[in-house]
Design a protein that fits this description.
The complex is a heterodimer of chains A (184) and B (223). Chain A has two helices and ten strands; from the N terminus they run H-H-E-E-E-E-E-E-E-E-E-E. By secondary structure, chain A is of the alpha+beta class. The chains are: A alpha+beta (184), B mainly alpha (223). The structure holds protoporphyrin IX containing FE (HEM) and FE2/S2 (inorganic) cluster.
């Protein structure tokens, strides 16, 4: 060790450069790598575990017989129907509601009563101050017959996909409103 | 007897400086309600902590009966409240404490604000305090679903719609919190885990930071 200074006298310019990694660097890399590996091995399974539900494939929903076409009027009517669903380890049935009516041309459409403000349930003609509108009791959102948002809510009421078969209205997935824009 | 036990331990571990450091400090006159009654506003931080301790204790005991499952949750809460001795009290402590802790925290925040105690060098403690505030809101929101009654279910639907309205991230955030596409069995277990493990752990670490900073920086001076 004491010869260290002497060596500087022998090679005054540059000590011969050594390409090898220093002991310290080697330890930093191996210990750092091992720590990163163990850390990732601990965390990754848990991350994949917690995000699993959002990675499940969502199949397109089935269409379900909801109402007879002959019963649909120009005044919106409330219909409920049941949908089989998987809820984790349970099979359950959800009860869904649709407000169905036909317009002057006879076209039938079904609105979802989930308020587009924050998801309460709207009703038809349930606010005396604003007749013939959908009204949400939570924060006072209002919508027209076609679901167009008048107040509070940022978007029109969603619609159900519809199909017609043998005199029945069938409803499918909930999709963004397409009819409200017809109203100027 | 207790003195002897204490001395025996103290001789070996020298614990006196530890608790002196934590607890043996004079209360400055301007924060002591015995000197100026209006100084009671300085109690709200301690009251917030007191109620937090009640929440954690009562919550731990509630989990001895509570089951986070959509079929059994409601029945287990009903049972612990109406059939278990003092169940009404213990659930009541947790139920009312959850609101009271928010009130106390709010009053504490007002005190800090109006005494200007958030100013240098205490800015970081204001930030930690705000984080505590959000964790508390999280505890309230996740706890609210647990009884799995109609109010719980629909309040959670609305909460998740709020998450959904976050720009860009919203829908993914909602589904992640929901644990799927509906508010159901997996939402309840998720909220339960957050409520009793994750958020209390975060809360306690933030509180430790909050208190260490108070010790380091002292209570702010009189107005
Ligand atoms: C400051 C912290 C906490 C707050 C603000 C809080 C808030 C709440 C709220 C609002 C409820 C619904 C109560 C009701 O509807 O009656 C609840 C329920 C519950 N909490 Fe907490 N909680 C906290 C800490 C904890 C901790 C640490 C645990 C467990 C270790 C816990 C376990 C429970 C359980 C098992 C329930 C369901 C029983 C019931 O609804 O009465 N809580 N909590
Ligand atoms: S949820 Fe309908 S108005 Fe807010």
């Amino acid at each position: 060790m004491s010869s260290h200074n002497d060596q500087q006298d022998i090679w005054p310019e540059q000590p011969p450069s050594r390409k090898e990694m220093s002991r310290r660097q080697f330890l930093t890399y191996t210990l750092g790598g091992a720590t990163a590996f163990m850390g990732a091995g601990t965390i990754l399974p848990m991350v994949r575990f917690v995000v699993d539900p959002i990675l499940h494939k969502k199949g397109a929903g089935d269409f379900i017989k909801v109402a007879e076409i002959s019963k649909i009027t120009e005044e919106p009517q409330e219909f409920t129907f049941e949908l089989k669903q998987k809820d984790g380890w349970y099979d359950s049935t959800a009860t869904l509601t649709a407000w169905i009516r036909k317009d002057a041309k006879g076209d039938i459409y079904a609105l979802s009563p989930i308020c587009k403000h924050l998801g309460c349930t709207v009703g038809w003609n349930n606010n005396k101050a604003h007749p013939d509108e959908y009204h949400c009791p939570c924060h006072g959102a209002r919508y027209t017959k076609l679901g167009k948002n008048l107040e509070v809510a940022p978007k029109p009421l969603d619609q159900y996909k519809t199909k017609f078969d043998n005199g029945w209205v069938l409803l499918g997935d909930i999709v963004p409103n397409t009819v409200a824009s017809e109203e100027a | 007897m207790f003195k002897n036990i204490y001395n025996w331990i103290d001789e070996r571990l020298d614990v006196t400086p530890i608790w002196r450091d934590v607890a043996d400090h004079e209360v400055p006159e301007h924060v002591n309600p015995a000197h100026h009654f209006s100084a009671f506003v300085y109690c709200f931080g301690g009251l917030t902590f007191f109620i937090t301790v009640i929440q954690i204790l009562s919550g731990m005991f509630l989990t001895m009966y509570y089951v986070p499952d959509i079929i059994n949750a409601y029945a287990s809460v009903e049972y612990l409240q109406s059939s278990v001795a003092f169940g009404q009290i213990v659930r009541g402590m947790h139920h009312w404490g959850a609101s009271l802790v928010i009130v106390m925290m709010f009053l504490h925040t007002m005190r800090v604000f109006f005494t200007g105690s958030y100013k240098a060098p205490r800015e970081m403690n204001w930030v930690v305090g705000m984080l505590i505030f959000f964790v508390m809101l999280g505890l309230g929101l996740t706890g609210y679903l647990l009884p799995w009654d109609n109010k719980a279910y629909f309040a959670t639907k609305v909460t998740l719609e709020i998450a959904n309205s976050v720009p860009v991230m919203g829908p993914v955030l909602k589904e992640l919190m929901q644990g799927g596409t509906i508010v159901g069995a997996e939402t309840l277990t998720r909220f339960f885990a957050l409520h009793v493990f994750f958020l209390p752990a975060v809360l306690l670490s933030l509180l430790v930071g909050h208190f260490i900073m108070i010790r380091r920086q002292g209570i702010s001076g009189p107005l």
